[in-house]
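Much of our argument rests on the idea that a fold can be written as discrete symbols. Part of our work consisted of pairing the sequence of a single chain with a tokenised description of its backbone. The amino acid sequence and the backbone structure tokens for this protein are reproduced below.
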Amino acid sequence: MSDFIDISSHNGPVDWAAYQAAGHSRVAVKATEGSTYTWGGYADAVRAASAAGLEVWAYDFDRGLGDAGYFLAACASDGVMDLLDGIVLDFEATATAADGTAFMSAVEAANTGKRLLVYSGASYLAERRLPYRPGWEWWCAAYTAELPAPPAGWPPASFWQFTDNATGPWISGPVDLSHDLTPAPTPTPAPTPLPVHQEDVMGLTVLYADKPGQPHVGVIDGHVICPLEAETETAMVKAGAPIIPVPLAQHQALQNLAGQ
């Protein structure tokens, strides 16, 4: 996935269509700070970014133990929770391990189904000793030439905010920009088509596809046929596949063909 921005009240308006057209597919939006401040523009930004087809995260700038309840209530009351793909704890400044853990635990307990991330520098995570839990992702803040190693107990960063001075025609003024370090998803290979051949049996057109371990599975007028053994017929009935009656001569011919 491409680089992405994060925005707050410090940034100018974003042309989301132009941002998306430039190849960007994600944004993080500041929603709250502590348990008293909500950015007035965050809900509109979330709605507009989501409408543009972007993956949208919302974050709280950690200020204490009451943050999670305030954040979750704001997202719910403003009607944007269902539009979010991720929830981020901005863990810096005065944040402590106790309130960081409390925030993440409360969000987990809310069963939002969102991606859960911690944004922080490697040294701050190590200094504050915020313990890692499986399922969290680290979004590393580091304006350095090299990505820092993760602190003890943490996995490598999934995302790397490498500058706070990016520019683009889709925003006025500088903005934070981050790399996505997660591996690209492996595309699912298209299934290999089975070899199909057609036979005319006693006036019936039968299409056969040879499957490994199950030769001569066929279709007559859209219905599956195969060697008419008792086990096969029972399995077909259980699967809801129709068993089609055919005249005796055709039945014997089909059995003969299926046994080839």
Summary: Helices lie at 16-21, 42-51, 67-77, 97-109, 122-128, 230-238, 248-258.
